Amino acid sequence: MSSLFLWGLEQIAWIRNETPWLLYGLPLVGIFFHVIKTYDFPFSNGTANDLVTQINEDKSSINPQAGISGIYAIVSTWLSHLVGASVGREGTAVLFGGNVAQMALQKLNCSSQEKSIWIRAGMAAGFSSIFGTPMAGCFFGLEIGTVGKIHWPSLIACISTSFLANFISLHVWSTKHVFYPLVFLPTISMLFWAKLISIGLFLGIIGLIYKRLESNISKLLAQLPGQTILKGLISGLILFFLFQIPFFKPSIGLGSEYLLQPFQETYSYIEFAGSKLIATTLSLALGFKGGEATPLFLIGSHATSSLSEWIQLPHAFLAAIGFVSLYCGLTKTPITGLCLGIELFGPSAWACYLIGTCLVMYVSGNTGLFKSQKVANWIPKTPYQ
What we know:
There is one protein chain. By secondary structure, the protein is mostly helical. It has two domains: 2-172, Orthogonal Bundle (Clc chloride channel); 190-375, Orthogonal Bundle (Clc chloride channel). The protein is 63% helix and 1% strand. The chain is built from 16 helices and two strands. Strands 1-2 form a two-stranded parallel sheet. Helix 2 (26-38) packs antiparallel against helix 10 (228-242) and helix 14 (315-330) crosses helix 16 (350-363). The radius of gyration is 20 Å and the shape is globular.
């Protein structure tokens, strides 16, 4: 499913580049999503956050239409990318991974603990196969339920599904992932650690802005006219007119062509991070479907790489810290961030990925991208949400 999903995204990116007039479809797709939401079709209700709820609540029910929900998640994300919405892909992969697990659970008589293990394993498989990072996928499934706690009973299941899903994606369906440069640790000193903490705090502020912006846009959207078609039309038109502004044109679509740019020594484009942040929060708050990982990868890596001349650290090192720490800090999964950094950029700066992610976790507030996550008692709390 991940291979099919990624293949579809590649075809859609090519089609949209060849036919830029597809942006005019934003209002129509906006209407479609708001009609689906208003009439509360059962297959459209599932989200990655709902999977976290099912992991944490013993009595939560399994989605009886999990198979259709998984298909809808893929198709709706394809549709959002087709018209240029600035959304990601990981949320969809995690969702259909969990939906596959739910389909299996419907055929089996499982206990509540077994249900949690199956869903975690499905989410791990989706994460692993969409990015080609099996260890990060494994720990994503283990960490996602409770911040600061690893669900050890799911270890064997998450390792098995994560590595197997990645193997099948790579070696059966020949899925190609982006290859990132190896990142090496600069000279260590007290000044270096001070700079690293400053970068983590900087990313944490970006994460807090991202969360607040998306929340406030959602509240403003609730003030739009209640008529479904009009609300969807306005949502699509807002995004359409945003993309007519030259500053926001690079933020159209997934933006995977920009993933490697912040690792170049001569590249510095912090404006892209700002435009992508605004475009992504708008796209998701206005009802378009997709994940948040790739946009957050782009925002974090471009924002930190642009500081290279100011902070006197290599572009590639800064880009890797921003790439890993912003997203994994907002999902509150520090070990996932550690593994993701090692798998994508090599093991040299492993401690920096962990420190950066933990700083983003704290500064960005007590809640992350998944509102249903529980928090272990030993995790320090911020005075704000």
